[in-house]
Amino acid sequence: MVKIGISVDNHFDVNHEDGFERLKQQAEYLVSQGYQYYLNAGDTYNDFTKSLAYFRALQAEVGDAVTVRFIAGNHDLVNGISYDEAQSDLDPLYFHEKTLAIPNTDAVLIGNNGWYDYSLAQLGQAKTDAEYAQWKRAFWIDRGIDQPLSDRERMQRVLRTTEEALIATDGKQRIYVTHFVPDRSFQVFAGDRPYWQMATALMGSQALGDLLGQYRVDHVAFGHLHFRDQPRLLHHGMYYHQPLGYGNKRLFEWHSHDWLTEWRDTLVTIDVPTKK
């Protein structure tokens, strides 16, 4: 068996944690528990340069025992990176729009940051694209992200590059890792909270879930929506939504009061059989 670990929404800076101290504990755990791959699905820091430095340091700490890869969530993209850089192959560890075959297995890892197209919005077509975009610019952290195109156009690239990867890996056991929500069934609504009603438009895209179902993807891991769910069989595959989330005074989403405990408890594990 090949043991794969996937984590998301670690939010070191928001949680007032020193990731470069924590990574020593993480590395020890990953190695001691026999993980051979560790993927992070985004929102590590509010600055891409810090996220990149952290994952480089984590890879150096685990050495050859664990292969480390990461994608960017919206928080990672707020500072330290342009749109063009975010779409480029800027580092071997950066896994956006990349695939990685796992040797001696039929499995392949596929990474894509993802995005949103307002299709998960609670208010649906009662609001226009312009109104959702205007609200984002006024109230949402994503207003600081460099983006020379619309949200729908950005999401179209996600769908195109995802489909290209799925076609290229036909016949393989596919493990798809993204940051944003890929299916409306995971969405959480609150009719008495106008702020959240608008924020739901920025959670993800139903079109991505439909595409992953069309190609019968085996495993899908994501985050962004800070509610933890049990693994769910959906669209012919298992979907994993186990974000670490926030553990501060303003917003406390943890089950304990220790970041490392939360990281261990929300670490998704997928075992891939080796060829006989």
Automatic annotation (TrEMBL):
Residues 9-226 form the Calcineurin-like phosphoesterase domain. It comes from the Bacteria. Transmembrane segments: none annotated. Keywords: Hydrolase. The keyword Hydrolase applies. InterPro entries: Calcineurin-like_PHP, Metallo-depent_PP-like, Phosphoesterase_putative. The keyword Hydrolase applies. GO terms for molecular function: hydrolase activity. NCBIfam families: acc_ester. This is Phosphohydrolase.
